[in-house]
């Protein structure tokens, strides 16, 4: 699930930066309303944060699972048809002040699934087609970030004249693998063997992009190798699969 995330607050009519949630916080939902999406609403799927408000629009249970657990569709088993087809709108606020990090937001989505959709699941390891994220031998393109080894990832995503630009600060290799997973069709496993945290700047031309740039950047796979000295290799390997034991439609409120 690719999400657009924005955050803003108001003070005397002027936008102010939203303070980050405490790193050790494990937020739940203070308030969350869920209702079936309006089929006549043409805005499409969306995810955003404004102040303390968190909203997910036109989103299926399968997409909640992809976001909350950071997995691919091939890593889900046992979903009923309605969980793939029926779309929901969620509006709510966390029970902790501040803007949640990616990991904290994922935790909130997992709690929403358990508390409001009655999700029960178990994990299995199954061999499947995956991408292995590995380091290119002799590459020196990685930029280490030593500002806060216990800090959280900062992510900025934008589109620019048909180019996709992804900037990550203070990201681990495991976090990079999760984010790259949004742009490919199979799970991405971190097999770099690299510890620590890094800054990444990636720009590439998506396969379906319409660009008028005179010198457009390469596709994703070439960009990963040329710009940050890593590569994605197609392999078969054991990967985590979420097997759904129970899930139900929520009572709308």
Automatic annotation (TrEMBL):
Comp. bias (Polar residues): 1-11
Residue span of region Disordered: 1-26
Protein name: Uncharacterized protein (TIGR03435 family)
Origin species: Granulicella mallensis
Classification of source organism: Bacteria, Pseudomonadati, Acidobacteriota, Terriglobia, Terriglobales
